[in-house]
Amino acid sequence: MYSVRTLLGGAAGFDYKVAPRIITPSRSAGQNDRFFIFYKNTENRPSGSIFNIMGMKVGDFKNEGGEGSQSFDDPDAPGGGKEWEGRLYWEAGGVPAGIYIWQFSAEGNFYTGAVVVAR
Q1: CATH number for the domain including 70?
Q2: Domains in the chain: how many in total?
Q3: Residue 78 — φ and ψ, nearest 5°?
C-alpha cells in the first residue's frame, strides 16, 4: 500500500490511495490484474485514464461507489475498505509489461502517477 497524497479542504477534504504500485497479471483472470485508486470525501465521481509511456491512451478507469455512499466494503482496500467511499480500477488484461501513467480528475483537480505491469 502506498499513499500518494492527501489534499485537505477542511474537515471533509478529498483523499485517495493507490494499490498496488506493481501488478503482475497472469493468464488466469482475476489474479493480480487490477490497479486501484480508493477515494473518499468527494461530491462527484472521479474519472480517469491510463496511458503507456509514449502517451497513448490504453484504457479508462471503471468507477464503483462514490457519490456519498456510506462505505465501500472491499477486501482489497486499505483497512478492508470501511473508510473508503469508492474506487477507480483498471484491469491490465492484455497490455505488455511496462510502466503506465494513470491520471484522474476529482473535485476540479488532476492527479497523476505511475503503475508497473510486470509479467
Answers
A1: 2.60.40.2550
A2: 1
A3: -55, 135
CA atoms within 13 A on the CB side of 95: 25
Q: Give the phi and the psi of residue 80 in degrees, each rounded to 5.
A: 80, 5
Q: What tens digit of pLDDT does each residue of 49-89 get?
A: 999 999 999 999 998 876 555 455 555 666 665 677 888 99
pLDDT, one tens digit per residue, over 3-50 is 444 333 323 478 888 888 888 887 666 667 888 888 888 878 899 999
Domain interval for residue 25: 2-117
**For residues 71 and 77, what is the distance between their CA atoms, to the nearest angstrom?**
11
Q: What kind and span of H or E run contains 13?
A: none
Q: What pLDDT shows up at residue 68?
A: 52
Provide the β-strand partners of residue 102: 50, 113
Sign of CA dihedral 25, 102, 98, 77: negative
For residue 83, give the DSSP letter.
T
